[in-house]
Amino acid sequence: MGGHPNTGLKHWHLRVKFPNGSTRQIPEIFAKTEEGPDGRVISAKVKDIYDAVEDLIRRSYGAPVEPFTLYWKGRKLDRPGVRVRHISVNGEKIQLYDGESNPIIVKYNKDIVEEPDLQTHDLDIDYETGDER
User: Taking a C-beta distance cutoff of 8 angstroms, is the pair 10, 32 a contact?
Assistant: First the structure.
């Protein structure tokens, strides 16, 4: 018994941690584009996480959303077109179904101290061949 459509498909229940310390769950996002018993789902991209966070902020505070950046395991998620399933940090990928252990961190841009050596996440795909690693 599931709480949302297409529970049998690979997906995430990601949690995001906000600058004020609160942690909230965003709506489920799916690993691959496919047909499910409850309809078609689309493979999630970083932009989908960004949009969900923006929506949470807007609904929670009812105010314009300040510019923000997303991080996972200390790395920027700053490439909106990257599929979530391809994100990797030190060989670790975001765990399916469970977003509890390593939440996505939200930092308002005005509070970010520029770190010139801070890297973007790795990709678990070879974009020249399309092969997933």
Answer: yes
